[in-house]
């Protein structure tokens, strides 16, 4: 199946055209391989899709919406994606976190400006986030590569690691005000797991540091613009994409020097079949998926009437209340219980990208953290959280579209049980995923690699799982990633 094809250029096949499949394909194409991408859906993008729902002219993102890690991606930021139509847009305030007192913590790209708004906790915020924000580019380069390696910047990585290894509950003790504790807690909740576990602080620390460096931007015209830009670059580099092609077995694929699978581990095991070594099959089929998301897209007349004026200018708003309330909700979800007050991430992309609105009707997207495979309807609980911090929201809703965990999986089979992070973020999986291995992308089958969000460094529209897997494939072919090849191609 993976024999080398004849001709001057070796061939590669990538199964799946989500952000990681596209990133893998671009990496291989720019390294000189002839690449074909096969996508089961009729549209590329996976989590990077956008479209109208109930109200004509009001544009929503289907899954990924705000791209703090995409803007800071060590791979994506080397590509001239602006030449292919990608434009990052940022709201005045990147992130807001309201609390029950009617105030809100606000995250700006400036660490100093953020600290100024946090009152007594300002100095503590600057001490904690000033250094990693200044080192964000270096840190992202380090932590978004497989961790089993010799670090290029050991001192900076160690300084960050001293905090990242801690539970988020311990880091939160540095702050005294509800706004600062909530602002950190909402970012830490991107873990989708207990905030009291070791390494739980790592996600929050990294996304806040990256936010201070790159902001929390959206793609003009919807997240699909990022997928289109990657696809256009791929085609310019000689690659091609076929949609509507569902792969059930490696035997369906044409001969190729290398194959990369942008699939969930169990799906990859099914496609590889009996070729997969037993130890790898066990790891893939027993892969533990994480808590899920329940999505609610609202077309809102005049926008959400937040009590905290700060929230009206923020591209992203976290709804969860106090740090303790967030930690309780995340613990419940991880244990398989639906909390009365779930944590919500709300995206107001139209503030940065007004073209997503239709007149005074604006798109507001939210997802709640819910148990894996949750079969209930979280709409009422989510709207109650809106009303808690923005009384009168219900009266302004022109149309609402709910997307359950099952709906998410039907729309994208990689989102097993509604899991949008590619697997449970346990302490082990925060260091090695999807299995314990020096090279997490190798499947044990020569020439076949896994490149989905289940691999390191995990979820997010940053393309690093695909890029890292493609580099592993290149090494297996006796090639090295041409670091300066991107600049030559872009010119």
UniProtKB/TrEMBL annotation:
Residues 21-260 form the Amine oxidase domain. Signal peptide: none annotated. Pfam families: Amino_oxidase. It comes from the Bacteria. Coiled coil: none annotated. InterPro entries: Amino_oxidase, FAD/NAD-bd_sf. GO terms for molecular function: oxidoreductase activity. PANTHER family: DEHYDROGENASE-RELATED (PTHR10668:SF105), PHYTOENE DEHYDROGENASE (PTHR10668). Probable oxidoreductase that may play a role as regulator of mitochondrial function. Interacts with COX5B; this interaction may contribute to localize PYROXD2 to the inner face of the inner mitochondrial membrane. This is Pyridine nucleotide-disulfide oxidoreductase domain-containing protein 2. The lineage of its organism: Bacteria, Bacillati, Actinomycetota, Actinomycetes, Kitasatosporales.
């Amino acid at each position: 199946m993976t024999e080398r094809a004849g001709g001057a250029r070796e061939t590669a096949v990538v199964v799946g055209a989500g952000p990681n499949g596209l990133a893998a394909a671009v990496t291989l194409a720019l390294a000189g391989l002839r690449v074909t991408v096969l996508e089961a859906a009729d549209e590329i993008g996976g989590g990077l899709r956008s479209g109208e729902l109930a109200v004509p002219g009001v544009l929503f993102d289907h899954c990924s919406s705000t791209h703090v890690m995409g803007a800071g991606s060590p791979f994506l930021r080397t590509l001239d994606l602006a030449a292919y139509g990608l434009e990052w847009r940022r709201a005045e305030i990147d992130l807001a976190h309201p609390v029950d007192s009617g105030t809100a913590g606000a995250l700006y790209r400036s660490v100093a400006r953020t600290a100024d708004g946090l009152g007594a906790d300002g100095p503590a915020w600057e001490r904690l986030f000033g250094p990693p924000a200044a080192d964000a580019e270096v840190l992202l380069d380090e932590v978004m590569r497989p961790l089993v390696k010799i670090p290029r910047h050991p001192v900076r990585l160690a300084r960050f690691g001293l905090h990242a290894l801690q539970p988020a509950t311990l880091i939160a003790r540095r702050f005294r005000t509800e706004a600062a504790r909530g602002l950190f807690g909402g970012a830490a909740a991107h873990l989708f797991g207990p905030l009291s576990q070791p390494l739980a602080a790592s996600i929050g620390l990294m996304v806040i540091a990256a936010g201070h460096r790159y902001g929390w931007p959206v793609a003009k015209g919807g997240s699909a613009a990022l997928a289109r830009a990657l696809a256009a670059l791929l085609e310019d580099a000689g690659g091609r994409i076929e949609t509507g092609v569902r792969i059930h077995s490696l035997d369906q694929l044409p001969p190729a020097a290398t194959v990369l699978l942008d699939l969930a581990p169990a799906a990859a095991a099914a496609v590889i079949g009996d070729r997969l070594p037993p130890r790898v099959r066990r790891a893939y089929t027993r892969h533990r998926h994480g808590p899920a998301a329940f999505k609610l897209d609202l077309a809102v007349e005049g926008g959400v009437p937040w009590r905290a004026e700060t929230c009206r200018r923020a591209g992203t708003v976290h709804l969860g209340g106090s740090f303790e309330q967030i930690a309780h909700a995340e613990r419940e979800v991880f244990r398989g219980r639906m909390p009365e007050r779930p944590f919500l991430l709300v995206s107001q992309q139209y503030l940065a990208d007004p073209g997503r609105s239709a007149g005074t009707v604006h798109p507001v997207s939210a997802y709640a953290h819910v148990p894996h495979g949750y079969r209930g309807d979280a709409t009422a609980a989510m709207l109650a959280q809106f009303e808690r911090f923005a009384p009168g929201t219900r009266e302004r809703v022109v149309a609402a579209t709910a997307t359950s965990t099952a709906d998410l999986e039907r729309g994208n089979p990689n989102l097993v049980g509604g899991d949008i992070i590619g697997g449970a973020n346990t302490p082990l999986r925060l260091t090695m995923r999807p299995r314990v291995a020096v090279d997490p992308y190798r499947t044990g089958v020569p020439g076949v690699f896994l490149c989905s969000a289940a691999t390191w460094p995990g979820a997010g529209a940053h393309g690093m799982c695909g890029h890292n897997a493609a580099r592993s494939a290149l090494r297996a072919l006796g090639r090295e990633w041409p670091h300066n090849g991107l600049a030559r191609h872009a010119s």
